[in-house]
Amino acid sequence: MKDQSLKTKERRKVGRRKVEGERLKLKDQRLKIKGLKSILRTSYLFRKLYTAYRLSLNALRSLPSAQSLLILHQCAGGGVVLTLYHKQERKFMSQFILHKENTRGHANHGWLNAHHSFSFANYYNPERMHFGVLRVLNDDLIAGGMGFGAHPHDNMEIITIPLAGAIAHKDSMGNSAVIKSGEIQVMSAGTGVSHSEFNANADEELNLLQIWLFPNQKNVTPRYDQRTLDVAARHNNFQQILSPNASDDNVWIHQDAWFSLGKFDAGFETEYKIKKARNGVYAFVISGEVTINGQVLSKRDGLGVWDTDAISFTANSADAEVLLMDVPMELN
Q: In this model, does residue 278 exceed pLDDT 50?
Protein backbone atom coordinates (compact mmCIF):
# COMPACT_ATOMS: atom_id res chain seq x y z
CA MET A 1 0.00 0.00 0.00
CA LYS A 2 2.80 2.37 0.89
CA ASP A 3 4.58 1.70 -2.46
CA GLN A 4 1.35 2.32 -4.38
CA SER A 5 0.81 5.61 -2.51
CA LEU A 6 4.35 6.75 -3.33
CA LYS A 7 3.87 5.84 -7.02
CA THR A 8 0.58 7.79 -7.14
CA LYS A 9 2.23 10.85 -5.57
CA GLU A 10 5.10 10.60 -8.05
CA ARG A 11 2.69 10.40 -11.00
CA ARG A 12 0.86 13.47 -9.71
CA LYS A 13 4.16 15.36 -9.43
CA VAL A 14 5.07 14.41 -13.02
CA GLY A 15 1.61 15.51 -14.19
CA ARG A 16 1.94 18.86 -12.36
CA ARG A 17 5.38 19.39 -13.93
CA LYS A 18 3.93 18.78 -17.43
CA VAL A 19 1.08 21.21 -16.82
CA GLU A 20 3.50 23.81 -15.44
CA GLY A 21 5.77 23.25 -18.45
CA GLU A 22 2.89 23.88 -20.86
CA ARG A 23 1.97 27.04 -18.92
CA LEU A 24 5.54 28.30 -19.17
CA LYS A 25 5.59 27.61 -22.93
CA LEU A 26 2.34 29.53 -23.36
CA LYS A 27 3.66 32.39 -21.23
CA ASP A 28 6.86 32.44 -23.29
CA GLN A 29 4.84 32.63 -26.55
CA ARG A 30 2.78 35.50 -25.15
CA LEU A 31 5.92 37.36 -24.07
CA LYS A 32 7.44 36.90 -27.55
CA ILE A 33 4.33 38.30 -29.22
CA LYS A 34 4.22 41.15 -26.70
CA GLY A 35 7.89 41.90 -27.39
CA LEU A 36 7.27 41.81 -31.15
CA LYS A 37 4.39 44.25 -30.76
CA SER A 38 6.66 46.56 -28.79
CA ILE A 39 9.34 46.42 -31.49
CA LEU A 40 6.77 47.10 -34.18
CA ARG A 41 5.42 50.13 -32.33
CA THR A 42 8.75 51.70 -31.48
CA SER A 43 10.89 51.00 -34.56
CA TYR A 44 10.28 53.44 -37.42
CA LEU A 45 10.89 50.80 -40.07
CA PHE A 46 8.68 48.14 -38.52
CA ARG A 47 6.00 50.58 -37.33
CA LYS A 48 4.99 51.15 -40.94
CA LEU A 49 4.17 47.43 -41.19
CA TYR A 50 2.24 47.20 -37.93
CA THR A 51 -1.11 47.23 -39.74
CA ALA A 52 0.01 44.39 -42.02
CA TYR A 53 1.25 42.48 -38.97
CA ARG A 54 -2.11 42.86 -37.23
CA LEU A 55 -3.94 41.64 -40.33
CA SER A 56 -1.59 38.68 -40.73
CA LEU A 57 -2.49 37.43 -37.24
CA ASN A 58 -5.87 36.36 -38.65
CA ALA A 59 -4.08 33.81 -40.82
CA LEU A 60 -1.65 32.94 -38.02
CA ARG A 61 -4.43 32.23 -35.52
CA SER A 62 -6.15 29.85 -37.93
CA LEU A 63 -3.28 27.38 -37.33
CA PRO A 64 -2.23 25.69 -34.08
CA SER A 65 0.49 27.84 -32.52
CA ALA A 66 2.92 24.92 -32.50
CA GLN A 67 2.64 24.67 -36.31
CA SER A 68 3.01 28.30 -37.37
CA LEU A 69 5.44 31.15 -37.02
CA LEU A 70 5.27 34.79 -38.08
CA ILE A 71 8.56 36.16 -39.41
CA LEU A 72 9.55 39.72 -40.26
CA HIS A 73 12.60 40.27 -42.45
CA GLN A 74 14.04 42.55 -45.10
CA CYS A 75 13.98 41.66 -48.78
CA ALA A 76 16.55 43.18 -51.14
CA GLY A 77 14.87 45.84 -53.26
CA GLY A 78 11.43 45.08 -51.87
CA GLY A 79 11.43 46.49 -48.35
CA VAL A 80 10.30 44.64 -45.25
CA VAL A 81 8.00 41.65 -45.68
CA LEU A 82 5.93 39.39 -43.49
CA THR A 83 6.16 35.61 -43.83
CA LEU A 84 4.03 32.77 -42.48
CA TYR A 85 6.08 29.60 -41.95
CA HIS A 86 4.49 26.18 -41.39
CA LYS A 87 6.81 24.32 -39.00
CA GLN A 88 5.28 20.86 -39.41
CA GLU A 89 5.53 20.87 -43.21
CA ARG A 90 8.83 22.79 -43.02
CA LYS A 91 7.91 25.29 -45.73
CA PHE A 92 6.98 28.93 -46.16
CA MET A 93 3.25 29.28 -46.69
CA SER A 94 3.54 32.61 -48.48
CA GLN A 95 5.21 35.98 -48.32
CA PHE A 96 3.47 39.27 -48.87
CA ILE A 97 3.97 43.00 -48.85
CA LEU A 98 1.16 45.49 -48.31
CA HIS A 99 1.07 48.93 -49.93
CA LYS A 100 -1.82 51.02 -48.61
CA GLU A 101 -3.24 53.69 -50.92
CA ASN A 102 -2.05 56.59 -48.76
CA THR A 103 1.56 55.34 -48.71
CA ARG A 104 2.08 55.79 -52.46
CA GLY A 105 4.26 58.52 -53.87
CA HIS A 106 2.32 61.61 -54.98
CA ALA A 107 3.01 64.46 -57.38
CA ASN A 108 0.43 67.07 -58.36
CA HIS A 109 1.56 69.25 -61.28
CA GLY A 110 -1.85 70.81 -61.87
CA TRP A 111 -2.47 69.24 -65.28
CA LEU A 112 -1.11 65.91 -63.95
CA ASN A 113 -2.06 64.36 -60.61
CA ALA A 114 0.03 61.20 -60.27
CA HIS A 115 0.31 58.46 -57.65
CA HIS A 116 3.26 56.05 -57.74
CA SER A 117 3.16 52.58 -56.18
CA PHE A 118 6.93 52.31 -56.79
CA SER A 119 9.76 54.83 -56.97
CA PHE A 120 9.36 57.08 -60.00
CA ALA A 121 10.61 60.51 -61.13
CA ASN A 122 11.01 62.69 -58.00
CA TYR A 123 9.49 60.03 -55.72
CA TYR A 124 12.22 57.78 -54.34
CA ASN A 125 11.70 55.11 -51.70
CA PRO A 126 14.46 52.47 -51.43
CA GLU A 127 11.94 50.04 -49.95
CA ARG A 128 9.68 50.38 -53.00
CA MET A 129 11.85 50.00 -56.08
CA HIS A 130 10.03 47.09 -57.73
CA PHE A 131 8.04 43.90 -57.16
CA GLY A 132 9.96 41.28 -59.08
CA VAL A 133 10.06 42.51 -62.69
CA LEU A 134 7.21 44.98 -62.03
CA ARG A 135 9.08 48.29 -62.00
CA VAL A 136 6.40 51.02 -62.37
CA LEU A 137 2.72 51.26 -61.47
CA ASN A 138 1.48 54.80 -61.96
CA ASP A 139 -2.09 55.94 -61.39
CA ASP A 140 -2.40 59.19 -63.41
CA LEU A 141 -5.12 61.82 -63.69
CA ILE A 142 -4.51 64.05 -66.72
CA ALA A 143 -6.45 67.25 -67.44
CA GLY A 144 -8.33 67.75 -70.71
CA GLY A 145 -6.06 68.23 -73.74
CA MET A 146 -2.89 67.89 -71.66
CA GLY A 147 -0.25 65.17 -71.68
CA PHE A 148 3.34 64.07 -72.22
CA GLY A 149 5.30 65.32 -75.23
CA ALA A 150 7.61 63.02 -77.20
CA HIS A 151 10.03 61.21 -74.89
CA PRO A 152 12.27 58.12 -75.30
CA HIS A 153 12.25 54.61 -73.80
CA ASP A 154 14.37 51.51 -74.29
CA ASN A 155 14.42 47.94 -72.97
CA MET A 156 11.13 48.19 -71.12
CA GLU A 157 7.68 46.63 -71.61
CA ILE A 158 5.13 49.45 -71.23
CA ILE A 159 1.44 48.73 -70.65
CA THR A 160 -1.25 51.41 -70.54
CA ILE A 161 -4.80 50.78 -69.30
CA PRO A 162 -7.24 53.73 -69.48
CA LEU A 163 -9.75 53.57 -66.61
CA ALA A 164 -11.74 56.62 -67.77
CA GLY A 165 -11.40 58.77 -70.87
CA ALA A 166 -9.11 58.26 -73.88
CA ILE A 167 -5.40 58.64 -74.78
CA ALA A 168 -4.04 60.02 -78.05
CA HIS A 169 -0.79 58.15 -78.84
CA LYS A 170 1.92 58.81 -81.45
CA ASP A 171 5.32 57.13 -81.70
CA SER A 172 8.50 56.96 -83.76
CA MET A 173 7.36 53.64 -85.31
CA GLY A 174 4.66 55.55 -87.19
CA ASN A 175 1.75 54.51 -84.98
CA SER A 176 -1.01 57.02 -84.29
CA ALA A 177 -3.98 55.80 -82.27
CA VAL A 178 -6.58 56.60 -79.63
CA ILE A 179 -6.91 54.14 -76.75
CA LYS A 180 -10.20 54.33 -74.84
CA SER A 181 -11.47 52.96 -71.54
CA GLY A 182 -12.12 49.26 -72.13
CA GLU A 183 -8.96 48.87 -74.21
CA ILE A 184 -5.32 48.07 -73.47
CA GLN A 185 -2.12 49.27 -75.13
CA VAL A 186 1.33 47.67 -75.03
CA MET A 187 4.68 48.86 -76.33
CA SER A 188 7.96 46.93 -76.30
CA ALA A 189 10.60 49.67 -76.25
CA GLY A 190 13.48 47.32 -77.11
CA THR A 191 16.35 49.05 -78.91
CA GLY A 192 14.62 52.41 -78.48
CA VAL A 193 11.41 54.26 -79.26
CA SER A 194 9.96 57.69 -78.58
CA HIS A 195 6.27 58.46 -78.12
CA SER A 196 3.82 61.09 -76.94
CA GLU A 197 0.64 60.63 -74.87
CA PHE A 198 -2.12 63.21 -74.53
CA ASN A 199 -5.65 63.32 -73.19
CA ALA A 200 -7.68 62.92 -76.38
CA ASN A 201 -10.54 65.00 -74.95
CA ALA A 202 -10.30 68.71 -74.19
CA ASP A 203 -13.20 68.74 -71.72
CA GLU A 204 -12.82 65.42 -69.91
CA GLU A 205 -10.30 64.16 -67.36
CA LEU A 206 -8.29 61.08 -68.26
CA ASN A 207 -7.48 58.41 -65.67
CA LEU A 208 -4.99 55.72 -66.66
CA LEU A 209 -2.70 53.09 -65.23
CA GLN A 210 0.77 52.98 -66.77
CA ILE A 211 2.81 49.93 -65.94
CA TRP A 212 6.43 49.13 -66.77
CA LEU A 213 7.99 45.66 -66.64
CA PHE A 214 11.62 44.69 -67.13
CA PRO A 215 11.79 42.47 -70.27
CA ASN A 216 13.26 38.97 -70.44
CA GLN A 217 15.05 39.91 -73.67
CA LYS A 218 17.04 43.07 -74.29
CA ASN A 219 17.38 45.05 -77.50
CA VAL A 220 14.39 43.52 -79.27
CA THR A 221 12.80 45.25 -82.25
CA PRO A 222 10.33 47.84 -80.89
CA ARG A 223 6.67 46.92 -81.36
CA TYR A 224 3.21 48.32 -80.63
CA ASP A 225 -0.20 46.74 -80.08
CA GLN A 226 -3.61 47.59 -78.67
CA ARG A 227 -6.77 45.57 -78.12
CA THR A 228 -10.40 46.21 -77.32
CA LEU A 229 -11.41 44.07 -74.34
CA ASP A 230 -14.71 42.31 -73.78
CA VAL A 231 -15.63 44.03 -70.52
CA ALA A 232 -18.56 41.64 -69.93
CA ALA A 233 -16.10 38.71 -69.79
CA ARG A 234 -14.61 39.98 -66.55
CA HIS A 235 -17.87 39.85 -64.55
CA ASN A 236 -17.13 37.57 -61.57
CA ASN A 237 -14.06 36.38 -63.46
CA PHE A 238 -10.38 37.24 -63.80
CA GLN A 239 -10.19 38.00 -67.52
CA GLN A 240 -6.70 37.50 -68.95
CA ILE A 241 -5.67 40.66 -70.81
CA LEU A 242 -1.90 40.14 -71.24
CA SER A 243 0.46 37.19 -71.52
CA PRO A 244 3.86 36.15 -73.00
CA ASN A 245 2.12 34.27 -75.82
CA ALA A 246 1.44 35.94 -79.17
CA SER A 247 -1.17 33.23 -79.93
CA ASP A 248 -3.34 34.18 -76.92
CA ASP A 249 -6.39 36.37 -77.42
CA ASN A 250 -4.79 39.33 -75.64
CA VAL A 251 -1.78 41.63 -75.94
CA TRP A 252 1.62 39.99 -75.38
CA ILE A 253 5.01 41.13 -74.10
CA HIS A 254 8.61 39.94 -73.82
CA GLN A 255 8.20 38.65 -70.27
CA ASP A 256 6.69 35.63 -68.49
CA ALA A 257 3.89 37.77 -67.10
CA TRP A 258 0.11 37.50 -67.13
CA PHE A 259 -2.32 40.33 -66.33
CA SER A 260 -5.97 39.78 -65.43
CA LEU A 261 -8.85 42.19 -64.76
CA GLY A 262 -12.02 41.33 -62.85
CA LYS A 263 -15.23 43.03 -61.67
CA PHE A 264 -17.12 41.24 -58.93
CA ASP A 265 -20.42 41.09 -57.09
CA ALA A 266 -20.33 41.40 -53.30
CA GLY A 267 -19.65 38.07 -51.64
CA PHE A 268 -18.15 36.43 -54.72
CA GLU A 269 -15.28 34.06 -53.86
CA THR A 270 -12.68 32.46 -56.09
CA GLU A 271 -9.06 31.36 -56.26
CA TYR A 272 -6.40 32.57 -58.66
CA LYS A 273 -3.70 30.06 -59.57
CA ILE A 274 -0.30 31.54 -60.34
CA LYS A 275 0.68 30.83 -63.94
CA LYS A 276 4.33 29.93 -63.52
CA ALA A 277 6.54 28.55 -60.76
CA ARG A 278 8.56 31.26 -58.96
CA ASN A 279 6.16 33.98 -60.08
CA GLY A 280 4.38 36.25 -57.62
CA VAL A 281 1.17 38.24 -57.91
CA TYR A 282 0.74 41.95 -57.30
CA ALA A 283 -2.94 42.82 -56.81
CA PHE A 284 -4.08 46.43 -57.32
CA VAL A 285 -7.59 47.36 -56.21
CA ILE A 286 -9.12 49.72 -58.77
CA SER A 287 -12.36 50.16 -56.81
CA GLY A 288 -14.31 48.68 -53.92
CA GLU A 289 -13.10 46.42 -51.15
CA VAL A 290 -11.75 42.87 -51.37
CA THR A 291 -10.00 40.29 -49.22
CA ILE A 292 -6.96 38.47 -50.61
CA ASN A 293 -5.30 35.75 -48.51
CA GLY A 294 -6.95 37.19 -45.40
CA GLN A 295 -5.84 40.79 -46.11
CA VAL A 296 -8.63 43.36 -46.43
CA LEU A 297 -7.83 45.80 -49.24
CA SER A 298 -9.59 49.03 -50.21
CA LYS A 299 -9.56 51.23 -53.32
CA ARG A 300 -6.03 51.75 -54.71
CA ASP A 301 -4.38 49.45 -52.15
CA GLY A 302 -1.72 47.07 -53.46
CA LEU A 303 -0.73 43.63 -52.18
CA GLY A 304 2.21 41.57 -53.45
CA VAL A 305 2.19 37.82 -52.70
CA TRP A 306 4.82 35.22 -53.56
CA ASP A 307 6.17 31.80 -52.54
CA THR A 308 2.71 30.33 -53.11
CA ASP A 309 0.84 28.51 -55.88
CA ALA A 310 -2.45 30.38 -55.57
CA ILE A 311 -4.24 33.21 -53.79
CA SER A 312 -7.73 33.26 -52.31
CA PHE A 313 -10.05 36.11 -53.26
CA THR A 314 -13.33 37.49 -51.87
CA ALA A 315 -15.20 40.58 -53.06
CA ASN A 316 -16.51 42.54 -50.06
CA SER A 317 -18.42 45.19 -52.03
CA ALA A 318 -20.57 45.33 -55.16
CA ASP A 319 -18.17 47.64 -57.02
CA ALA A 320 -15.01 45.56 -56.51
CA GLU A 321 -12.62 45.77 -59.46
CA VAL A 322 -9.08 44.35 -59.31
CA LEU A 323 -6.03 44.10 -61.57
CA LEU A 324 -3.77 41.09 -60.98
CA MET A 325 -0.18 41.19 -62.26
CA ASP A 326 1.39 37.70 -62.26
CA VAL A 327 5.13 38.36 -62.70
CA PRO A 328 8.53 36.68 -62.23
CA MET A 329 10.10 37.53 -58.87
CA GLU A 330 13.66 37.25 -60.16
CA LEU A 331 15.13 39.86 -62.48
CA ASN A 332 16.38 38.34 -65.74
A: yes
